[in-house]
Specification:
With 272 residues, this protein is α/β, with parallel strands linked by helices. The protein contains twelve helices and eight strands. The chain has an eight-stranded mixed β-sheet, sandwiched between helices. α10 links the parallel β7 and β8.
Length: 272
C-alpha cells in the first residue's frame, strides 16, 4: 500500500470555524459517513494507510483536532475530552451530517467514547482502536518518558522514544524504510496543543458509564501495546454491552500502521 505525504494532500484540506477556532479537515469518498478521529499529536495522516480503501465504500470525514495538525490551538491551558467532543458535534452539524459511524484511535478513541456518551443520537456504530476508558498512571509514565528522552537528547530522541513505545520491536526491525518515513513526518506537531490535550486526558475516566453505550461497538487492540495496555481494551469489551473485541498478537499501539491491510478489511466488514 502506498505511503502518501502530507504535501500531496494539503491542498485538499478545507477549514471550518468551530467555537472561534479554525479547524482543518478533509472529506473523501462516497457512501455512508464515517468520522475518523486521530490520536494525540497526530493529524489526518494517521489514517493514510486506510483512507484509499475505506473511501471506496464510505464518505470519510477527517478533522484535525484543535491544537493538532494545521488547526488552531486552544487559548485554554487544558483541553478535555468533553471539549473535543463538543468540537466534533459542531463540526458535524456545520457540515450537515446528522449521524455517522465513529472510529477513534488512542486519544481519538477517548474522544469517540465521550462523543458517544454526550451525543448518542449522532452515532450509528462505534470503533475504538487501542484506547481506554480511563488514563492510567502507567500510560502517563510511558508518555512522559518521551519528554525525558527529549530533555536528554533533543527532538530526535523524543521521536525515537515515542516510536519504540508505539510499534513492536519486530515491526520496527522489519520495516526500517517505513519507520524512517514515520519519524520524518512530525513537522506539524503543535507542542502547546499536545500539552493541553495531554493534561485534559489525565482526568478522563468513563469506566462507570460504559454500560450507557448501547450501540454496536468494535474494539480493536494490539496485545503488545506499551502505551495503553491490552487489559484496558478488555475492560471496554466487558463493560460495553453490544461489543466485539478483536486483538492482534505481536502488535503495538498502532495497528492502523502495523496491521494496516487487515485492519482496513475489518473496518469495512464491520461498518458495511
Amino acid at each position: 500500500m502506498r505511503v502518501c505525504t502530507y504535501v500531496a494532500i494539503v491542498n485538499e484540506l478545507a477549514r471550518i470555524e468551530v467555537d472561534g477556532i479554525q479547524l482543518f479537515y478533509r472529506v473523501k469518498g462516497e457512501g455512508p459517513s464515517v468520522l475518523l478521529i486521530h490520536g494525540l499529536g497526530g493529524d489526518i495522516r494517521g489514517w493514510e494507510f486506510q483512507e484509499d480503501n475505506l473511501s471506496k465504500h464510505f464518505t470519510l470525514l477527517m478533522p484535525e483536532l484543535r491544537g493538532h495538525g494545521r488547526s488552531e490551538g486552544p487559548d485554554a491551558p487544558v483541553v478535555t475530552a468533553e471539549m473535543f467532543a463538543k468540537d466534533i458535534a459542531v463540526f458535524l452539524k456545520k457540515l450537515g451530517y446528522d449521524d455517522v459511524h465513529v472510529v477513534g484511535q488512542s486519544m481519538g478513541g477517548v474522544i469517540a467514547q465521550q462523543f458517544t456518551l454526550d451525543f448518542p443520537e449522532h452515532v450509528k456504530k462505534l470503533v475504538l482502536i487501542d484506547t481506554a476508558p480511563k488514563i492510567t498512571e502507567e500510560t502517563i509514565d510511558e508518555v512522559y518518558s518521551w519528554r525525558e528522552a527529549q530533555v536528554e537528547g533533543g527532538q530526535e530522541a523524543y521521536h525515537l522514544a515515542a516510536t519504540k513505545s508505539t510499534y513492536s520491536e519486530e515491526f520496527i526491525e522489519n520495516n526500517r524504510e517505513l519507520i524512517d518515513y514515520l519519524l520524518n513526518r512530525e513537522d506539524l506537531v503543535n507542542e502547546e496543543g499536545v500539552l493541553a490535550a495531554g493534561l485534559g486526558l489525565t482526568s478522563f475516566d468513563v469506566t462507570d458509564r460504559l454500560s450507557e453505550i448501547q450501540i454496536e461497538t468494535l474494539i480493536i487492540h494490539g496485545e503488545g501495546d506499551r502505551i495503553i495496555d491490552y487489559s484496558l481494551g478488555k475492560i471496554l469489551h466487558d463493560e460495553i454491552p453490544n461489543s466485539k473485541l478483536v486483538s492482534f498478537p505481536n502488535c503495538g499501539h498502532s495497528p492502523t500502521v502495523e496491521k494496516r491491510e487487515t485492519l482496513g478489511q475489518i473496518l469495512i466488514d464491520f461498518l458495511r
